[in-house]
Amino acid sequence: MNQTLKVGISGVRGIVGESFTPQLAASFAQAFGTFAGRGPVLVGRDTRPSGPMFEQAVVAGLESVGCRPVLAGVLPTPTLLMLTPHLGARGAIAITASHNAAPWNALKFADRRGLFLSPARAEELFDLYHQRDFPLVPEPELPRADLCERGFDEHARRVAAFVDAPAIRRRRFRVVVDAVNGVGALFSAPLLRDVLGAEVRVLHGEPSGRFERGPEPVAENLRALGEAVVRDGADVGFAQDPDGDRLAMVSEMGEAIGEFYTLAFAIQQVLARGSRAPVVMTLSSSKTVEAAARAAGAGVIRTRIGEIHVSEAMLRAGAAVGGEDNGGVIVPAIHPCRDSFGAMAVILERLCSTGRTVSQLRDALPRYHLRREKFPAGASEAPERLRRLRRAYASLSPDLTDGVYVDFGTGWIHARRSNTEPVIRVSAEDVTPEAANARMADARAHLGFEL
Amino acid sequence: MKTLRLSGFGMRGFVGESLTPAAVMDYASAFATFLDGGRVLVGRDTRRSSPMIHAAALAGLLGAGCEVVDLGVCPAPIVQFSVPRRSAAGAIVITGGHHPMGWNAVLLIGPDGRPLDPQAGEAVLDVFHAGGFRRPPWDGLGSVREDASCGAEYFDALGRFLDVEAIRRAAFTILLDPVGGSGCAYLEPFARTVGARLVAVNAEPSGYLAREPEPRPRSARPLASIVGPLKGDAGFVFSSDMGRLALVTERGETPSEEYGFPLVAAHVLGRRIGPVVTNGCTTRTVDDVAAARGAPVIKTPVGQAYVMAALEDESGAIGGEGSGSAAVPAFSRAFDGFLMAGLVLEAMATARASLSDLLHALPRYHIVKRSVPCAPGAGYRALDAVREHAAALPGARIDTTDGLRIDRDDGWTHVRASRTEPIVRVISEAKDPAAAAARADELVRLLGQGT
Question: What is the ipTM of this complex?
Answer without folding.
Answer: 0.81
